[in-house]
């Protein structure tokens, strides 16, 4: 992590530890900064210092990415951390839940998914009895019995060595079972109101600028929350409402830009690792007051790619296509077949160039409805 990310994470942790009053922190994350890594490191740090944390985001893709990254950090840390360590984190402390229909869980995150754990427990304690499920039971618990015994043996040694001093410190820090991390979409957070559990203390909202204020109030009203951290960027995808009346009334506004407008301080992340310098220069000048810096990797000459042979094409291009817009009863808007023809030519040329670099992943986003007419030529 670069310095701006470290400062932002440490600043949030220090304020929570030094100031018991409820407060809201904003972390400003422009495009290409590495938001997922920052959020996952923050959640992992909160997990290690025993804060019960709830993290949510407006999309299921965002929460699964963050959950997978936190899980990976926990597994890597446990390779060098013993169970008796005060900062030991169990995989069981992380819980991902949500709708089965919309939440896509793969092999990397299924062990922290609520429905998967319920399924495994049902298999272990089913009608046949858990003796018939010995092997999956061992896999599920990951030899926790021996680890539990080792933990209490180490605790006994510590008590004999340190006496009452260790006991007082243990009471102050709290039991390891008190810490947990819950992850879901903000809409699914209403389910927590019906669950009897120890109060949560920290709320982390990822992509906070995309949430309408009314949506943010769902997790913000969870009992026990003392600190909230909003992570986002008001210049990227914003909260929207379909009704013009509601939009004019301000119901489409997000809590993140509202706090920014009121002068609430933000922790800025300022080094981008994704865009070509010429692209970031354009965004810098138009939206970010030249506050974003380019990482060394994107400045390197090897970062440049040239797939379109014509001289007008560089890192970005604006193409003004002439042509007549046509109406079609099957379309929601007008279409321009000249634009479709230009798009087809560009995509075909790009595809040929990308095939030469099969080892790289690329993404082509089509942002207008007329592109569907060109499916037959792809």
TrEMBL record:
It comes from Gossypium raimondii. It comes from the Eukaryota. InterPro entries: DNA2/NAM7-like, DNA2/NAM7-like_C, DNA2/NAM7_AAA_11, P-loop_NTPase. This is DNA2/NAM7 helicase helicase domain-containing protein. GO terms for molecular function: helicase activity. Signal peptide: none annotated. Transmembrane segments: none annotated. Residues 252-357 form the DNA2/NAM7 helicase-like C-terminal domain. SUPFAM superfamilies: P-loop containing nucleoside triphosphate hydrolases (SSF52540). Pfam families: AAA_11 (PF13086), AAA_12 (PF13087).
């Amino acid at each position: 992590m670069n310095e701006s990310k470290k400062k932002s994470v440490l600043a949030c942790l220090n304020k929570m530890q030094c100031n018991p009053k409820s407060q809201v922190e904003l972390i400003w994350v422009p495009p290409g900064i590495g938001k997922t890594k920052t959020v996952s490191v923050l959640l992992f740090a909160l997990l290690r210092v025993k804060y019960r944390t709830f993290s949510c985001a407006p999309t299921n893709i965002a929460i699964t990415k963050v959950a997978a990254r936190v899980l990976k950090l926990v597994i890597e840390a446990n390779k060098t951390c013993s169970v008796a360590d005060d900062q030991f984190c169990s995989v069981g402390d992380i819980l991902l839940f949500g709708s089965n229909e919309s939440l896509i869980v793969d092999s990397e995150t299924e062990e922290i998914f609520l429905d998967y754990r319920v399924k495994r427990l049902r298999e272990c304690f089913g009608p046949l009895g858990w003796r018939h499920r010995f092997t999956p039971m061992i896999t599920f618990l990951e030899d926790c019995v021996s680890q539990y015994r080792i933990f209490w043996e180490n605790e006994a040694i510590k008590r004999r060595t340190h006496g009452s001093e260790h006991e007082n410190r243990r009471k102050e820090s709290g039991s390891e079972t008190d810490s947990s991390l819950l992850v879901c979409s903000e809409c699914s957070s209403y389910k927590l109101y019906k669950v009897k559990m120890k109060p949560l203390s920290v709320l982390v909202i990822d992509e906070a600028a995309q949430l309408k204020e009314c949506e943010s109030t769902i997790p913000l009203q969870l009992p026990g929350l003392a600190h909230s951290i909003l992570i986002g960027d008001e210049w990227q995808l914003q909260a929207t409402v379909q009704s013009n009346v509601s939009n004019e009334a301000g119901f489409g506004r997000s809590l993140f830009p509202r706090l920014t407008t009121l002068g609430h301080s933000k922790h800025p992340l300022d080094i981008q690792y994704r865009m070509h310098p010429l692209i970031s220069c354009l965004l810098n000048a138009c939206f970010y007051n030249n506050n974003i810096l380019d990482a060394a990797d994107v400045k390197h000459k090897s970062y440049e790619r040239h797939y379109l042979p014509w001289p007008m094409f560089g890192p970005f291009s604006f193409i003004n296509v002439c042509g007549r817009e046509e109406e079609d009863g099957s379309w929601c808007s007008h279409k321009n077949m000249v634009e479709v023809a230009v798009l087809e030519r560009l995509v075909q040329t790009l595809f040929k160039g990308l095939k030469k670099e099969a080892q790289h992943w690329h993404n082509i986003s089509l942002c207008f409805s007329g592109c569907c007419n060109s499916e037959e030529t792809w």
